[in-house]
Amino acid sequence: MTTAWITDSSAITFLDTHKTNVTVPSESIFKKNKYEGLTDNQVFIGFARIDWEEGGHDAELEWVLIFDQPITEITFTDKTECTLQGMIEGKNLAKLCGEKEIKWGPASIGNNVIATMDETNQEIAGGKKITFKDLQGDDVLATMRLSFKKENGEEIQTREVPSTVLKKFPVVELLEELKKNAGKYGLEDCCVVNLGANGKESAYVNNRLLQIEAVLKENLSPEGILTNLTKGSGELKDRVRDELIKKLIDDQKGMGRGSKAHLEVSTPSKEIIGKAILQTA
After folding, report:
1. What is the mean pLDDT of the chain?
2. For 42, 139, 244, 271, which has the most beta carbons within 10 A of its beta carbon?
């Protein structure tokens, strides 16, 4: 296992996360203004088996940056070198549903597995050597592909997330913020930073919320629901989120008991640079 900072940018207000001063570069009504997150001291490498609780489990695709030394020892610039690798976040969405005061940790921490070259080795390896500036370009550096059988037993969920979803990510700003608050956040010896769920294909909730937002923008007048959401109607945003999660559970669209989510990370030349499996017990 290893320690990693796990980033969140969803619109939910959590009770237990560390709030940063770094702005999320998104105009989506379903994204928060500032990044927040938590430190996970039990991030698996290659393979993870997590407890399955009744319904509502998703396997989200997220990019991580891996450094050769703790982030407290690095001065971050566009020229900073690191390794780009893929990760599965095992999200227990049921724990984010139906409560006015929500903690993010129980749904997101302790359920994460970083890809490596050999799922049985449990050591960090592989990935794509990059600089921060590389992330800002139009070229695809690597792509994550994931699949798992849904709880209903009838469908296969597939996802594909290229590195270009990070093009506008304020990576230098976030890393400097984490470095400055390393003691407060428990990151003194941390060499791994997760960048959260980026792009509509990264997660069930991301995909559905962006679909909803597109419909609202196209079909509703300025006085409609979209205006209320944009003005920060937290109650309405929470209802939308809850309905999406309830539908996932009712339709058995998430991971079932004993399901395996398979992640493969590859370069444009089809070279495999990482693999991981997340299994529900």
Report:
1. 88
2. 244
* Closest by CA position to 97, among listed 250, 248, 208, 246: 246
Report residue 45 as tokens: 């490498």
Surface-to-core class of residue 72, CB atoms within 10 Å of its CB (0-12 exposed, 13-18 middle, 19+ buried): middle
Q: Which of 51, 41, 31 is nearest to 6 (CA)?
A: 41
Place of tokens 């990576």: 171
Confidence of residue 124 (pLDDT cuts 50, 70, 90): very high
At 127-155, the pLDDT tens digits run 999 999 999 999 999 999 999 999 988 88
In this structure, are residues 117 and 86 in contact, taking their beta carbons and an 8 Å threshold? no
Give the burial string for 233-256 (b: 16+ CB within 10 Å, else e).
eeeebbebbeebbbebbeebbbbb
User: Which CATH code for domain 2-280?
Assistant: 3.90.850.10
What phi and psi values does residue 91 have, to the nearest 5 degrees?
-100, 120
